[in-house]
Amino acid sequence: MSVTGSWVVGLVTRLLHRRVIIPFGCHDSTQRCFRSIQPFPCERVFPRWFAIGARRCITPAAVVAVSFSLLGGLARGHGGYHEELQRTDDEIAAHPHDGQHWYRRGLLNVLHGEWQTALVDLERADRLEPGKYATDWLRAQALMAGGRFEAAKSVLDDFVTKHPLHAGARAARARVLEKLKQHRAALEDFRAAVINTQNPEPDLLIEVAEALVTQKHTDEAADLIELHLKRIGHSPGLVMKALELDVALGRIDAALSRVDAMQKSAPRPEPWMAKRADVLEQCGRADDARAAWMALRDHILALPNLERGAHSMSRILEQAQIALGTIKPAPAPSITSLSSAKP
Predict the structure, then answer these.
(1) pLDDT-derived band at 342, boundaries 50, 70, 90
(2) pLDDT of 109-134, one tens digit each?
(3) CA-to-CA distance for 114 and 277, rounded, in angstroms?
(4) Closest CA to 73 of 63, 81, 61
(5) Number of alpha carbons in the 13 Å side-chain half-sphere of residue 297
(6) Burial 21-40 (b: 16+ CB within 10 A, else e)
(7) pTM
(8) Is the dihedral of CA 76, 82, 88, 92 positive or negative?
(9) At what angle do helices 270-282 and 252-265 cross, to 10 degrees?
(10) Does residue 287 contact residue 319 with C-beta atoms inside 8 Å?
């Protein structure tokens, strides 16, 4: 792997999971955007990860697709962040006219939520070496983190004009548009993000499905989830979203078939037995739902003591008993009782 790859390869996938940037597939326009990024030896900061995986990433697209991943790790470990920030500060002190160090510090500050400082660093990188770094993409992330959605949209508009196939930018702009209540335009960007991603992650698919439902495109949302369930397999999050959409569309037999399939492959059948009873209840099939809850209750009561006494089984049994009316749900604690409770 090139030195350029080893610098970028720490800096793009878990910011994604933090909903600041999303790990979408990268296209030619994205590759061109990132080819100019300067070297930074991430093996110095993440030796174990680098030894295991970094050298396998051989293309610019792969570099971009994983780059924020390692900084996401820094977000959860302040020691690593502060150590790298100190190194970068030292590099800036030694080479104040080298734009790569300002750009690197901008990346670190975006990750750490220091969005205003990040904007200053990125501006300095642009002044020192105009056009050399992908500062607009990071600038948009910083503005989003700061809640400056109008400004973020303006930056993303320019970025998307230059890189229309950049799935991450399209999804980021969709979220900005949602914040600005421009739901129809957001939906167009969400669709583009999925189309331009080779293997969309379940979180993105669920987010897009929810946006489709909000705009009364429930059939399209269900088709989207079903399509990618066939690709991914039984992803629990996608299955639950598919069930929700099946019930919303009145596809009860499809929902029950889905539950049955998951129950057969699950390590324990009880959660899916409860889900089956819940689906029947939601569709108004009261007699069938009651029979399903009774079957679940009897199944749990017949388990050996050790299994029946497990916390998860106790919770499911309580759910069945509440549904059958044999016990009442515990009342939620009132604000008064909470405030009067002794520490």
Answers:
(1) low
(2) 998 889 999 999 999 999 999 989 88
(3) 48
(4) 81
(5) 16
(6) bbbbbbbeebeebbeebbeb
(7) 0.67
(8) positive
(9) 170
(10) no
* Average pLDDT rounded to a whole number, residues 87-104: 93
Report the residue count for the chain: 343
Instruction: Give the distance from CA 175 to its chain's centroid.
Output: 12
Q: Copy the structure tokens of residue 275.
A: 């889900």
Residue with tokens 């196939």: 165
Over the chain, what HEC string results?
CCHHHHHHCCCECHHHHCCCCCCCCCCHHHHHHHCCCCCCCHHHCCHHHHHHCHHHCCCHHHHHHHECHHHHHHHHCHHHHHHHHHHHHHHHHHCCCCHHHHHHHHHHHHHCCCHHHHHHHHHHHHHHCCCCCCHHHHHHHHHHHCCCHHHHHHHHHHHHHHCCCCHHHHHHHHHHHHHCCCHHHHHHHHHHHHHCCCCCCHHHHHHHHHHHHHCCCHHHHHHHHHHHHHHHCCCHHHHHHHHHHHHHCCCHHHHHHHHHHHHHHCCCCHHHHHHHHHHHHHCCCHHHHHHHHHHHHHHHHCCCHHHHCCHHHHHHHHHHHHHHCCCCCCCCCCHHHHHHCCC
Residue in the block written with tokens 């970094």: 54
